[in-house]
Amino acid sequence: MCSISAEIIGGNGDLLGLIFIHLPVRSLARFKSVSQQWLALIANSKFRLKHTLENPSSRIPSGLFLYNPVFKDNTVHSISLSGFGGKIPTCADPIELPDDVPIKSMKLSADENVMLMVHSCNGLNLFRFNTFNNQMKSYCVRNLVTNQLKFVPLPKFDGDNYEWISSCYLAFDPLVSPHYKVICVKGMNRIGSKILIFSSETGKWRDTNVTMDDHKLEYAIGDYCHGAIYWIKRGYLKLSCYRFDIEAEIMTEISMPPTADGPNFRHFGASYGHLYLVCVRDQKEKVFNVFELNKVTMKWSIKHWVHVNRLISSCSQVLAKGRNNTSPSAFSILTVVRGEEHSALVMNISGEVISYNLRSKKVEVLLSELNWEVQSRRRVQIASLSPIISAYPFIATLYPL
Fold this sequence. Notes:
Blueprint: H1 2-10, H2 13-20, H3 25-31, H4 36-43, H5 45-54, E1 63-67, E2 77-80, E3 115-121, E4 124-131, E5 136-143, E6 148-152, E7 163-171, E8 181-188, E9 192-199, E10 204-212, E11 221-225, E12 228-234, E13 239-245, E14 250-254, E15 265-271, E16 274-282, E17 287-293, E18 300-307, H6 308-313, H7 316-324, E19 331-338, E20 343-349, E21 352-357, E22 363-367, H8 377-382, E23 390-394
Helix pairs in contact: 2-4
Pfam family, one: F-box
Domain F-box protein At3g26010-like beta-propeller: 113-309
Protein name: F-box domain-containing protein
C-alpha cells in the first residue's frame, strides 16, 4: 500500500511541486537525477523563482570558503556555519569541463594553483585560472551545488594602449533575473580604470564608458549588493567608498564616517543584502565598530561594537592564544554573516577561526589551527588593501549557468 502511494505521489507533478517547494536546495539538486519528470520540474524557471521567494533563508550563507591569496599554499578551506546551514561542498571536487575549455586535458582544481576564487555572489562563484604555465589568464563562473562551470571570454584590449584586467566581480540576483553579469575593472595606462560588463544572457562584453582617473579602483576591495558594485579603497590615512549602479551605469562616491580611516580598516563586504564595514574603534583595548550602510540614505551607522578581549575571555579554546599574542596582526576580521534573526562576526584569532554571535554574544570555534602565516599590519597597509585571508560565502542555488 505504501509503495503504491509513493508511486502515485512520485508521478504527480502537482503534489511533487508542493513538496519540493519546502525542501533545501542541495536536496533538490540531488533529486534531479531521480527521473526526467523530477528533473523537468526542478529545472523549471518558474519553480526556481517560487522556491527562492518562499525560502528567503536559502539566500543566507551556510558556509565560508577561506584561503590566503598571498600564502604559498592555495588550499581552500570549506567551513560550515552552525546555525546558518549544514555541510557545504569543497572547491576540490572534480569538474566536468565544458566544450569551450581552452585545453580539454587541463585539470582544474583550486588546490593546484591554477584556479583561484576571486568573488562569490548569491550562490555563484567567480574563479580566475591560469593555463600554459601561467602565461594565459581567464575567468569562469561555477555553481558548486550543480557543479556546473562556464567560461567567461576575455574582453578585447586596445593594442595601442597598455591595458590589463585589474579585477572582476559577479553580479547575480535570482529575484531580479536568472542571468548573471561580470563587472570588470580594466586598467588603462593613459586613463586610469574603465568599467566593462559581461552578460550571461548575451554572452558579450559591453563598454560602459565609465572611467575612474588615477587608478582609484586599483587594489580596491569590492562586493555586490542590491544592483550595484561597491568598492572600498584604503589609503594610508583615509578610506574611500565608490558605488557603481549596474543598470544605470553610474559611478558615485559615498561619504565615510569620521571614525573610519585607512589605518583602522579591517573588513568590507555584503551579506544577505546588507553592506558592512568593520573598523578599529580602540586599538589598545581591541574594540571594533561594525558599520552598516543604509541603502536609502547611503549613510553609514554603527550597528554593533565588539570588545575582542571580552570575546576571548568567553572562549577557553582561544583564551591562551589570544592573551599570549597581543599583536594587532593576531586578529583579523574575515566576514560578517547576516541571518534572519541574528548576525555573526567571523574572526581569525591566532589561528582559531571563530564565529561571534552579535546578539547573544556567544562564541563558537569553526576551525582550529589554521596553518597560515600571519602578516604584519604594516605589510598589509603597504600592499594596500588585500585582506590577510579571503573569505567568500557559500549559498546554495539551483540556477544554471
